[in-house]
């Protein structure tokens, strides 16, 4: 496939999980890809090697995106490597599951610095390169937590809701420059950290999703590639939930067997 041939892309948080799958898929469709990582150097290098094996072009870049100067440097490195930048996928993020009353200032700052500050200033720097191209595509990874409530995720959910608002506002602001901004909201997607949760199994994950199975990173990647491509040229300011029906389900406790026919 070559829907993205000749394009250059930066994917943040691409050392593992969803970001890694997105980076590989963009490369499969022809893009030259910079894979950002903060701590997953091995995963990023393995993905670069895989991309190079099938004839693609990729580099790995590292840094902590909670720092604005690092956001700018990472974008600059990607653009310099490929002679510009056409696609930005903001994916790097962190989750802390804890009750609202126990969420400390330090945890709040950590979550917002990466999940929102990183998105904001990576995008700001990337847009300077897209303006030179006269077009571009930004895909922000949000979450079902930005659409509905779930216990013990107040800070994380707040960032994901902010990402949705940021996506829509920026889509309007940049539409005249032909820079499209969309968001993808994954549901329960099995990434390595899920299996560190005591008692978590693939079967349990599947039982929580209306479609009957847990999602995989490869379920997210093709949709991101589509939104980055010319096939989505008239799509901007949208949020696409990829969640096996999770956000469509009305979460009322209702025992159907007790209600009769």
From TrEMBL:
The keyword Transcription does not apply. GO terms for molecular function: oxidoreductase activity. Keywords: Oxidoreductase. This is 3-ketoacyl-ACP reductase. InterPro entries: NAD(P)-bd_dom_sf, Sc_DH/Rdtase_CS, SDR_fam. Transmembrane segments: none annotated. Belongs to the short-chain dehydrogenases/reductases (SDR) family.
